[in-house]
Amino acid sequence: MNAKTKISLLILMGFLTITSCGKKETAPAESTEVNETSTEGEAAPAAEENVLVIEGNDQMQFNKNELKAVAGKPIKLTLKHVGKIPKEAMGHNLVILQEGTDEAAFAAKAITAKDTDYIPASEKTSIVAHTKLLGGGEEDTIEFTIDKKGTYNFLCTFPGHVAMMKGVLIVE
Ligand SMILES: [Cu+2]
Fold it and tell me: 95 and which of 74, 85, 130, 169 could share a cystine (Cβ 3.0–4.6 Å)?
């Protein structure tokens, strides 16, 4: 009995060691979560519903590929270009498309629309909302409402960026 108890204790300790090692490995992810939580805590005394903030950087990336909002209530969306490169070389916008829009076809039209900052006038009916085209250090906040629940694709229409810069806005 005694030996068995010892063995099972050893097994248990071994298991705990493995478990704690596993936790250590995921520590960077945990600290990121903590940062996000504390940021939300500061910005949300009344749990700011439908206030969305997303960043674009000089590496041609959004910092999120999923945004969530509540249907039928105004959405306040801020796009921040946190890079330094001017918009002529690393411009970012965020364009939300109507459900069912062919994203690739839309992006192809958009890159021909340089004069209107890559917002194609011919495709207006496919656009739910869009920000301005931003260069490094700039930001733009837009307000709009989506009544219909669904999953809406968003993208940056600056030439070549859609491959890296896209995501979904989930409206519930
Ligand atoms: Cu971009």
Answer: 130
What is the 22 CA–ligand 1 centroid distance (Å)? 37
pLDDT tens digits, 5-43: 454 444 444 444 444 444 444 444 444 444 444 444 444
In the numeric block, which tokens belong to residue 37?
A: 């939580």
Tell me the CA–centroid distance for residue 59 and ligand 1, in Å: 9
Candidates 2.60.40.420, 2.60.40.10, 3.30.300.10, 3.30.70.270; CATH matching 49-171: 2.60.40.420
CA of 134 to the centre of ligand 1 (A): 9
115: buried, middle or exposed (CB in 10 Å: 19+, 13-18, 0-12)? exposed
Question: How far does the centroid of ligand 1 lie from the alpha carbon of residue 117, in Å?
Answer: 11
